[in-house]
Specification:
The chain is 48% helix and 14% strand. The chain has 4 domains: 5-146, no CATH class; 391-463 and 933-1143, Calcium-transporting ATPase, transmembrane domain, CATH 1.20.1110.10; 495-721, Calcium-transporting ATPase, cytoplasmic domain N; 725-916, 3-Layer(aba) Sandwich (Rossmann fold). It has 37 helices and 32 strands. 45% of the residues are buried. The protein is of the alpha+beta class.
Length: 1188
């Protein structure tokens, strides 16, 4: 007979006379027979009562959902009461209750009698409370949810589907997408479009009524107004279509993210991964803080892993940062996070019935009612600059429109008949509003959206899943990347390559050599030691770390693995030593949940890994009584706690000489870039208190160590190699050329971190003393180890914290920005760091105003060759753990690992690296800079058109009281700019040259001097051509002096049609020029790599031909279009934009050289040091990135 809760029908033991396990099994069988009978599937004649839920579930989704509101043991007791009533519904009073009903009734009564005040820890009352909680959770699972705490659900599709129908699916209806009509309505709210709509209507009304002469028929007088309305309609439809498509793009992005959210569930006794949406009520989740951080549904804890308390972060719901310890029977809320411990929990509410689902639904409902979306973060640098530019252009456009209207009125109205007064005023007003419409950069939002959307889609193909669009362009401004080592710089293929055991040092010198073979060869007569080693590894590794085999009978045939990579490497070593880790686990009492020993699992004591302890332990019962505790962890931590060592002759004291030898081996392994782990054990008496704390040994964070994890027996030192990714050194080099600093933040030892950083290129010879040269022998390099680095280039986490935090008057720790600013310019590697160090680093770099201290920047440049970026640092941070989430959120751009990252890290990040590769971060930087460059290209194009169109309209207003370009023609040009040009220029792929210059200064104006030169030069050419055609075109080309084609009698006038055609073709050819921002002479370079640009250019050209040839009076062009001669003139002037750009480039180049020459000459004349010429972008980028 067993007293374990597992022995009593899966619920727990009741007070009073215990029921034997055999009786429980009998009861279970009779219970299931009765349920089958009630469903008509058994041999009995029972029927389901009308009040009984379908499929014999004694609870409803609504009752289960209430548990998340109650969240108390009383609430769980009430739910069991409802389940009991539901199960008994319809039964006659004379029927004897099942044994399970009796047990549940006793359990409910006992739970309700439990006081609300928590009992003292380890008291009999506390133990009873925990036992009752486990029994209640098991009863809820088996009795109410028809599942199994051990084997989970039956995975049959009908069972899963039925549960979804009864209890709901684990999805919350997405926020309702805006309809196309709503988006059209939002688009038409633009002030300029409203004005054009009003003027279009007025134009139709006036032209068809008072605008007609007596006896004159309307004919085509309505065309002007209708054309304006049509243009407005096109703009609205294009804008709404873009927004409509953008909505679906975000839906696809969300769906892609959801597909990465998988959880580990137990079905039919097997542990499998399913996406959140496939989790159903009754599923049993296997939880640990590494593989399952974010809880996907409301659950009840069945029990933590043996000796491993589960702690939850509920701050997302309660706002309290304190971690909450959970006992069996406690409610685990959806949206909260498991940050410590492991265990199993049963799902009780999903989707809309879960607490997180209810909150989400209320938020969406509130948004629908209010019509407002939640406020986002503050504007990014790009949007801040664009807002300023749009405001400045808007003001200039408004002034130009006012000038055009006033000038037209002053010059045109005095000589006009009174009957034409209203008509002329309307025409003048339409011209003024059209000038404003062309001047205002309405295409900017569209261009930004297209550039960001295009970049995010392309980045997805290059292993960057962008969650927030503005993260694209923010990454383009990044000045510092703080990166992890494992899996990011390295391949995350951990392999045990060295072992120090029983004073034998085995190091694999060649990749083809297996460590296990070396150990078996060297360690002759050490069978007992090897057994201790393999037991230590097999028992003290997480359940989620597993190896997969083609044939379980052939342990050497490993086909794959999952779980913690370091533990995978250790399990591989076990297999190489001709042992099988799962066999060891399954025959160890207190470690296995399989077979006859499963009932004794609770006798094991797991002490999970924590960053404070830097170790993990697992104690199991020992033959003959007591416990054996196995530990593994950071080499320096475990070694400091060892008092004995294991040798071929048994255990012996760990004397200073042996300790020094082990430390030397640790250094040797670290210099080879290996991660060092020490494995140790300790035997403990049966009555040992595992909660007892040491009075002499502290953890790395200063808290007292567990007494059980002291006085250990040193067993082995393992060197684990994780090779550097081959593409990383080149990626680091590109970062430095791009002016992006790279800092390594790792939990590894200093020498391991230095080895990897040097291989990767983060550390250079000049970071070492004497520039890496051995002062005793100039022909030799210094050994690249931590002790040879210059001051503050490398720091350990504890020293870093000690320097940047000081104790304030209240006795608390306070961040010292001044102290931080003295460290960070030198810092390249932060070893033995904690997640909090990442947060400190991100905060300190963000807040640093060192760039404003010109004297200090000058000193750093002169003495240490360190160039401080002349603006606030923009930080990119990588992370994979749950504890990294605050740092990822604090950084400007957070990168989470898509493979090794926890769900909480992914939720906190802006971009997810799908391949966990540092090179993908460099790709993100290139695409981010490309977004900025694409917007600059569009600005260069649009503002050139704006200047030309506004000046042309103003000249026309003064000379003829009407623009040479009709309102509909200017609107066509505007549409051309806003839609097609923005799409064409936004689709330009990034070039490597983007990473050969420093990041863009946040305070730097978006329109550079070079852009101004290009815009003014091209606008001057265009204005000159238009003015020549306007005033001298008739005599130059034999034209009849004309005017805009407005009426039937004007239909043969080609003068202004040529002006319109030339104007558009100059824009189209200049669009090719605008692909370049730096005055490149090869304007067609790379154009074949962007077929979309070529396609749009061709489409736009065809549309222009159609407009001119068939637009007639509607487009204010000559009927029948233009003949070949005039097309040649139009194309000739348009193509002239290309050589004009070459002239602009030459003039600008020599102007810059002349200015530099004059400056140097002036400085030399007054005795100052001669200033060297401006460095190349590449050199400048490297200088900004790191000290030379």
């Amino acid at each position: 007979m067993s007293s374990s809760p597992r022995a009593w029908f899966g619920f727990g033991k009741a007070k009073g006379v215990p029921v034997p396990a055999s009786a429980a099994e009998e009861t279970s069988d009779s219970f299931m027979d009765e349920k089958a009978s009630e469903n008509g599937n058994g041999n009995g004649n029972g029927t389901v009562a009308e009040s009984m839920p379908s499929d014999a579930f004694p609870v409803t989704a609504e009752q289960l959902s209430e548990l998340s509101n109650e969240r108390t043991r009383g609430g769980l007791a009430d739910l069991l009461e409802q389940a009991l009533k539901g199960d008994l519904a319809g039964k006659s009073d004379v029927e004897a209750p099942l044994q399970s009903h009796i047990e549940i009734r006793a359990l409910i009564d006992r739970m309700r009698a439990t006081p609300d005040v928590p009992p003292a820890e380890h008291s009999p009352e506390a133990l009873q409370l925990q036992e009752d909680g486990e029994a209640a959770a098991n009863a809820l699972t088996s009795f109410a949810l028809r599942s199994s705490p051990e084997t989970g659900l039956d995975p049959h599709p009908q069972n899963i589907q039925r549960r979804k129908e009864l209890f709901g699916s684990n999805v919350v209806a997405a926020k309702k997408l805006d309809s196309f009509l709503k988006l059209c309505w939002e688009a038409v709210q633009d002030f300029v479009l409203i004005m054009l709509l009003v003027l279009g209507i007025i134009s139709i009304a006036v032209e068809t009524t008072i605008g007609l002469d007596p006896g004159e028929s309307c004919g085509t007088c309505w065309i002007e107004g209708c054309a304006i309305l049509t243009s407005v309609l096109i703009v609205v439809l294009v804008t709404a279509s873009i927004d409509y498509v953008k909505q679906f793009a975000f839906v696809r992005l969300t769906n892609t993210l959801d597909e990465t959210n998988t959880k580990s569930v137990i079905r039919a006794g097997a542990q499998i991964n399913v996406v959140d949406a496939d989790i159903v009520v009754g599923d049993v989740l296997s939880v640990n803080s590494h593989s399952l951080a974010s809880i996907p549904a409301d659950c009840v804890l069945l029990g933590p892993s043996a000796g491993h308390a589960l702690k939850m972060d509920e701050s997302t719901l309660t706002g309290e940062s304190k971690l909450i310890s959970k006992m069996p029977g406690d409610v685990i809320l959806s949206g909260t996070s498991a940050v410590q411990g492991a265990g199993k929990m049963v799902v009780v509410a999903v989707g809309i019935n879960s607490l997180a689902g209810k909150i989400t639904a209320r938020v969406y409902e509130s948004e629908d009612h209010e019509g407002d979306e939640l406020e986002g973060d503050e504007e990014s640098p790009l949007f801040t600059k664009l807002t300023l530019i749009a405001k400045q252009i808007g003001i200039a456009g408004t002034m130009a429109a006012i000038v055009a209207f006033v000038a037209s009125c002053i010059i045109g109205l005095p000589g006009e008949p009174r009957a034409d007064l209203v008509d002329n005023l309307i025409n003048y007003f339409i011209t003024a509003i059209t000038v404003l419409a062309v001047a205002v950069p309405e295409g900017l939002p569209l261009a930004v959206t297209l550039a960001l959307a295009f970049s995010s889609n392309q980045m997805m193909k290059e292993q960057n899943l962008v969650k927030h669009l503005d993260a694209c362009e923010t990454m383009g401004c990044a000045t510092t990347i703080c990166t992890d080592k494992t899996g990011t710089l390295t391949a995350n293929r951990m392999t045990a390559r060295a072992l120090y055991i029983a004073k034998n040092n085995c190091i694999c010198s060649h990749p083809s050599v297996m460590l296990g073979d070396m150990v078996l060869k060297e360690l002759t007569g050490g069978t007992e030691i090897l057994e201790i080693l393999v037991n230590l590894i097999s028992i003290n590794t997480m359940n989620e770390t597993v190896l997969y085999f083609d044939d379980i009978t052939q342990p050497s045939m490993i086909t794959g693995s999952s779980g913690n990579p370091t533990e995978v490497a250790l399990l591989h070593l076990v297999q190489e030593l001709n042992f099988h880790y799962s066999d060891i686990r399954n025959k160890t009492r207190g470690r296995t949940d399989q077979g006859e020993l499963a009932d004794f699992l609770a006798e094991g004591k797991q002490i999970g890994f924590s960053s404070a302890r830097k170790m993990m332990s697992w104690a199991v019962p020992k033959e003959g009584g007591g416990y054996r505790l196995y530990s593994k962890g950071a080499a320096e931590v475990i070694l400091a706690r060892c008092s004995e060592e294991l040798s071929l002759s048994g255990t012996e004291p760990l004397v200073d000489e042996s300790r020094k030898n082990i430390e030397n081996v640790v250094e040797t392994y670290a210099r080879k870039g290996m991660r060092n782990l020490i494995l140790a054990y300790r035997d403990l008496p049966a009555d040992f208190d595992f909660e007892a704390k040491s009075t002499t040994v502290n953890n790395s964070d200063g808290t007292p160590a567990l007494l059980s994890e002291t006085d250990l027996v040193f067993t082995a030192l393992v060197g684990i190699e994780d090779p550097l990714r081959p593409e990383v050194p080149d990626a680091i080099r590109k970062c430095y050329e791009a002016g992006i600093d790279v800092r390594l933040v790792t939990g590894d030892s200093p020498n391991t971190a230095v080895s990897i950083a040097y291989q990767a290129g983060i550390l250079k010879p000049f970071h070492f003393k004497n520039n890496g040269i051995n002062p005793d022998n100039p022909d030799e390099e210094l050994e690249m180890v931590a002790s040879n680095l210059k001051n503050n280039v490398l720091m350990e986490g504890k020293n870093f914290r000690a320097k940047v935090y000081h104790v304030n008057e209240d006795g608390g720790k306070e961040f010292d920005q001044t102290a931080f600013d003295k460290i960070w310019p030198y810092l390249r590697v932060l070893a033995r760091s904690s997640p909090d160090d990442k947060l400190t680093l991100a905060h300190g770099l963000n807040q640093s105003a060192l760039y404003m201290d010109k004297a200090e920047c000058k000193r750093l440049k002169a003495n240490d060759r360190i160039t401080i970026f002349p603006d606030r640092q923009v930080i990119a941070m990588t992370g994979d753990g749950t504890n990294d989430a605050p740092a990822l959120k604090r950084a400007d751009i957070g990168f989470a690992m898509g493979i090794a990252g926890t769900q909480i890290a992914k939720d906190a990040a802006d971009i997810i690296l799908l391949d966990d590769n540092f090179a993908s971060i460099v790709t993100a930087a290139k695409w981010g800079r490309n977004v900025y460059a694409s917007i600059q290209k569009f600005l260069q194009f649009q503002l050139t058109v704006n200047i030309s169109a506004v000046v042309t309209a103003l000249v026309g207003a003064f000379a003829y009281q009407k623009s040479p370009l009709a309102a509909i023609q200017l609107l066509w040009v505007n549409l051309l700019m806003d839609s097609l040009a923005s799409l064409a220029l936004a689709s330009e792929p990034p070039v490597d040259e983007l990473l050969q210059k420093p990041p863009v200064n946040r305070s730097e104006h978006m329109i550079t001097r070079r852009m101004w030169a290009n815009m003014i030069g091209q606008a001057s050419y265009q204005i000159t051509v238009i003015m020549v055609l306007l005033f001298h075109g008739p005599e130059m080309f034999g034209l009849t002096p004309g005017h805009i084609v407005e009426k039937e009698e004007d239909k043969n006038s080609v003068h202004y049609t040529i002006i319109f055609n030339v104007f558009v073709w100059m824009q189209l050819f200049n669009e090719v020029n605008c692909r370049n921002l730096k005055g490149e002479f090869r304007v067609f370079k790379g154009i074949h790599k962007n077929p979309l640009f070529v396609g749009i250019l061709l489409v736009t050209s065809v549309l222009q031909v159609i407009m001119v040839e068939f637009g007639s009076v509607a487009m204010h062009v000559a009927e029948g279009g233009l003949d070949g001669k005039y097309w040649a003139i139009s194309l000739g002037f348009g193509a002239g934009s290309l050589p004009v750009q070459q002239i602009i480039n030459i003039i600008y180049k020599y102007a810059v050289h002349y200015k530099t020459w004059r400056k140097n000459k002036r400085l030399h004349k007054y005795g100052h040091e001669t200033t060297r010429l401006v460095q190349s972008n590449e050199s400048s980028g490297r200088d900004a990135a790191h000290p030379h």
